Amino acid sequence: MSSENLIRKVRIGIDVGGTFTHAVALDAETLEVLGRSKVPTTHRASEGVAKGIIDSLTKLLAGAGIKPQDVTFIAHSTTQATNALLEGDVAPVGILCLGSSSNNWIAQASTNLGKIRLAPEKYLTTYYKFVETKKGIDKEKVEQALKELVEMGAKAIAVTQAFSVDDPAHELAALEIARSMGLLSTSGSEVSQLYGLKVRTRTAVINAAMLPKMIESADMTEKSVRGAGIKAPVMIMRSDGGVMDIDAMRKRPILTMLSGPAAGVAAAMMFLRISDGIFLEVGGTSTDISAISNGKAQIRSGEVGEHKVYMRTLDVRTVGVAGGSMPRIDSTKIIDVGPRSAHIAGLGYVSFSEHLLNPKIKTIKPRPDDPEDYLAIAEGDGEPTLCLTPTCASNLLGLVPDGDCAKGDKEKITLAFGELSKKLNQPSEKLADEMLKLAADKCIPVVRQLIKDHKLDPALVTLVGGGGGAAAIVPYVAKQMNMPHSLASYADVISAIGVALALIRETVERQVINPTNEDILKIREEAHAAVQKMGADPASIEIHVEIDNRTNVIRATAFGATSMTENKDARKALSDEEKVELIAQSMRTKQEQVKLAAETKFFRIYTAEWTQSHFGGLINNKMQAVRVMDSAGSIRLQIQNGVARTSSADQAESAISAIAEEHSVWGDAGKVIPDIMILAGPKIIDLSGLLNVEHVNTLAKAELNEMPRNTEVVILAKLG
Hints:
single chain, Nucleotidyltransferase, domain 5, six-stranded mixed beta sheet, 19 helices, 33% helix, disordered N terminus
């Protein structure tokens, strides 16, 4: 077969940002970037952001010479759901409450939500009808109630009933009636399986409010992708860092909230292979900061307008400072940086200006209600067209590495800072340093809080920068915090890369008191089936089950790839010595202290002894650091104190029991077992978050069942 006829496997990711929509094509096997494109995000187009998605895809295929049949995966993030909530651009919702008990008045009080606050001065309007179902679903009564809701002004329907998580039959019957009438509809049991009628109803209502616009946009995008000849399923980024197929999005568009920031975190995990770190995605106006621990993004419960909803989102915290933030000045110094940016003010960066010969310092009001002390740069006596930004300051101080997208014109930057130096009577380098310090001071408290909230070990944390403005913020933040840092390659399109590499993901939650092994396996199987239905290759599916003892919630999160491909990592293979050097750096120890404790076809497990001192050295505890490195040379797991034990698949149960018994501790809640993980084949099976060794062994058995009995596995325990 000639090279012309060879079919490449290409993954395409499209990230819809606030200013630009980026598209990236990756070789599915080597992860090599084959091409990229950028177009303005089309917020105001009649087709909405879908137009920018289509335009960026068309430009990417043409520019990179990619044939439609080469595309095996295509996904996009979207700002549409988030923007709709922030701007109140949602459909009015009719709430159809069903009831069949003597306490229906309680249900009605919990489900008649009135106006729901989405953002300051932005509200979602709801209308309400109640239908008695003690004798079952009366089709005529349901149809009449739905007609009345539409006459009131409802454009979408949310069906709700108390305890529908136990028996959703009535909800589903009413939902079917609504859809047969051509109404866009959802139900409480469709969006969540957790108890809590008011929160479940609120979640369903917000989900319903998004349906009209999100389905219209999804249909338009899918039609255009098919029109381009691409047959791969169209995937959409979720707020928890995974993707779902377009049919799943049509039912639960609420899951796309915050999918933009989630894309960058997905890249940090899948492309940059961060094990433990704080990821700062720095744009032009704001910085999204999130935490990653043991290769997993940290999750929190979702909120809309300060109201709790039943959905899981990445814990992404946004700070109003970034690579394009504008400084504010008085007569002698820089007094603040941001929140206004050069983008919002319609100004360019001095770093990337084409013509600047005679800079003059001006102050402006970017927006009518802003103070008038924002710094701007004019050419001579003309109107301001440029601004000195943190990107410019970082370039002046030599913090932007060669080849980085933030690398600017040092000559013009020096010229503009020289003019500012004259005005404020301070050296240029001092002004640049002060600008970066003011910007960093807004990020540092958030970084510290994330480390604290998610109980990260500061000794393991690396700051990782992505986004076009990463070099403007991250190196200085790391310097101030005395922490290691790195900047992502392809930083400006890192979110699009994250979309291209994201795994299909689904989370199933149930509230079960004193869950049995059968309860756990049932929920695990449901999560497995959900991602497989969306196209995940069964051999790639991994599932993490955790039990929240406070709320009695069992949560199973499954994720898998659309197709199994051999990852021929494009990076240069590391020698054994280079691997040990990386491990020693991670452990903050000398290379001679590092030992190779175990090795499989896919992983190497290294250990090193260290001492933890208390009370000035009066008490010393012996610890063992553990690191897991994959065959590509990426550190996949970091454990400050743990044990590693080799076993076989058929002996894993007894090995887990022995480790748990040896290293359990007793506390106020009784016996606490260590977090257990298993390295089996190419998978890291995470069994942490379970309450007892019986639950751990039940899930371990389910995971290892299909492996040959003599398969070598490594059992890891994370000790307190």
